[in-house]
Amino acid sequence: MSTRATAPGKIILFGEHAVVYGQPALAVPITEVRATATVEPAKPGRGTIIYALDQGLEFSLKASQESALALAARLVLEILRTPEPDAHITVQSTIPFASGLGSGAAVSAALARSLAEYLNHPISDTELSALVYEVEKVHHGTPSGIDNTVICYNKPVYFIRDKTIEIFDAPIPFHLLIADTGVPSPTRLTVASVRAAWELNKPQYEAYFQKIGCIAKNARAAIEAGDIKSLGPLMNENHSLLSVIGVSSPELDTLVESARMGGAWGAKLSGGGGGGNMIAILEPQNAIDVSNALVKAGAVRVIHTVVG
Ligand code: PMV
User: Fold this and answer.
1) What is the pLDDT of residue 194?
2) Ligand 1: which of 191, 198, 278 to mutate, judged by most atoms within 8 Å of the beta carbon?
3) Closest CA to 99 of 300, 275, 301
4) For residue range 251-274, what is the model confidence (pLDDT) as tens digits?
5) How much is the pLDDT for 173?
6) C-alpha distances in Å from residue 174, one per residue of 95, 171, 180, 182, 269
């Protein structure tokens, strides 16, 4: 019997980078983009073949040492203590690569979930999240764990590294635009550059991280109180601190500025930075104007999403 599983993209609202150093961060799944994996029976003796359609890749599980997808599949087999099945695994994603929307974690999650179901051992969200975290560690250096958590639980999370995850509610829904600079920027590189700067000046960087953590805490309180307009200034403040720690870029700054000028309540880069996506919070009736302003300023794609 064939199986199919999907996993959403995600966006970090507040707290990226500082979250790696123990500060809280807020992230939400976004369903406008997602990864999908299907597992189908193959001829006996064929082993497991993985097709990564977006990358035009096909490889056998046995042969592949490097790939994140192969690692995710191997971990499933290890957890379930099952030999490699004769199966075709096909993975496809509409989540842009290396842009802060969690594409890596989502493809691993979709693959692992669908393979586990194929082997008649569905795994829990907690097991799936731990498995995807292992893959993220190999491929991203020192991840905080926020991507695998929000994607595998598929819920808005208030995340503190190594603490029990907390789900938060947004009683008043709010509208975001997510705009892509079109500049791919692997998270591992910006995480490493922040680490190098932190090594050189720990007190200063710890102080920045603490300020970012406070913003994330205040943002959660504002969301839960339904005070969504105050998220705008909090985003602006968070963006300034991310610029100070060196993870913004001219393209991100241009989009952030154009969203603010276009009438958004506030805007910031989201995720690893250095490129990738930014987010803006705004009144729904401004969405078209701000979206046009973003495209004029160079955004290659704008997604309108509602949180809550
Ligand atoms: O680039 P993204 O969306 O995968 O986000 C990375 C978030 C960081 O805080 C920069 C790194 C991490 O592991 O939390």
Assistant:
1) 97
2) 191
3) 275
4) 999 999 999 999 999 999 999 999
5) 96
6) 22, 9, 20, 25, 18
Looking at residue 100, its pLDDT comes to 83
Q: What are phi and psi of 89, to 5 degrees?
A: -110, 125
Question: Would the CB of 178 count as within 6 Å of ligand 1?
Answer: no
Closest-lying ligand 1 atom to the alpha carbon of residue 146: 14
pTM listed for this prediction: 0.92
Both tokens of residue 130? Answer: 């731990």
245 lines ligand 1 (CB under 6 A): no
Mutation to probe ligand 1, out of 11, 12, 238 (largest number of atoms < 8 A from CB): 12
- DSSP-assigned letters across all residues of the chain: --EEEEEEEEEEEE-TTGGGGT--EEEEEEEEEEEEEEEEE--TT--EEEEEGGGTEEEETTT-SS-HHHHHHHHHHHHHT-PPPSEEEEEEE-SPTTSSS-HHHHHHHHHHHHHHHHTT----HHHHHHHHHHHHHHHHSS--SHHHHHHHHTS-EEE-TTS--EE---SS-EEEEEEE-S----HHHHHHHHHHHHHH-HHHHHHHHHHHHHHHHHHHHHHHHT-GGGHHHHHHHHHHHHHHTT---HHHHHHHHHHHHTT-SEEEE-SS-SSSEEEEEE-GGGHHHHHHHHHHTT-SEEEEEEE-
Nearest in space to 11 (alpha carbons), one of 151, 171, 183, 202: 151
106 lines ligand 1 (CB under 6 A): no
Q: Does residue 52's CB lie within 6 angstroms of at least one atom of ligand 1?
A: no
Q: What is the structure's pLDDT at 42? A: 96
